[in-house]
Amino acid sequence: MDLKHKELTDGILKTFYEVYNELGYGFLEKVYQNSMYIELKNKGYQVEAQNKIKVYYKGTEVGEYYADLIVENLVILELKAVDYIVKDFENQILNYLRSSDCEVGLLLNFGKKPEFRRKIFENNRK
């Protein structure tokens, strides 16, 4: 199976595990976000933090949200620091993808055990 932006997401996931191995479990999400930002930047990736994405309903702006990190304008990262990933978090990242030009999202959880989910929502479905 050919994964969209595979090389980029592989690099992001490698970075996720490096940060997790360095910091471990128990910090606030912001600590992990800042660490991921620094590490991804150090590896030469273009990274934006807390980038505003507007949500529209039938052409009218109805809200906004802030993506934790967006890498290379291609992949949205949603970071969590909870015991385990729940379905609501997966739905959240799908909504982020639906509202943006990004097609790939990674939900990264710095929980008791590191875990991630990879989500796709292609632009031709938006």
Short synopsis of the structure:
InterPro entries: GxxExxY. With 126 residues, the protein is α+β, with helices and mostly antiparallel strands.
Describe the fold and architecture.
With 126 residues, this protein is an alpha+beta fold. The chain contains three helices and five strands. The protein has helices at residues 6-23, 29-42, 87-98; strands spanning 47-57, 60-71, 75-80, 104-110, 114-120. Strand 3 (75-80), helix 3 and strand 4 form a beta-alpha-beta unit. Helix 1 (6-23) crosses helix 2.
Keywords summarizing the entry:
alpha+beta, 5-stranded mixed β-sheet, 3 helices, 34% strand, GxxExxY, GxxExxY protein
Sheet with most strands: strand arrangement: 1-2-3-4-5
CATH architecture: 3-Layer(aba) Sandwich
User: Which H/E pattern describes the elements?
Assistant: HHEEEHEE
Specify Rg, calculated over alpha carbons: 14 Å
Return the domain count: 1
Which geometry do the CA atoms define? globular
Helix content: 25-40%
Q: What's the multimeric state? A: single chain
Mean pLDDT: 94
How many individual β-strands?
5
Low-confidence segments:
none
CATH fold field value? Trna Endonuclease, Chain: A, domain 1
- CATH class, named Alpha Beta
Structural class call reads: alpha+beta
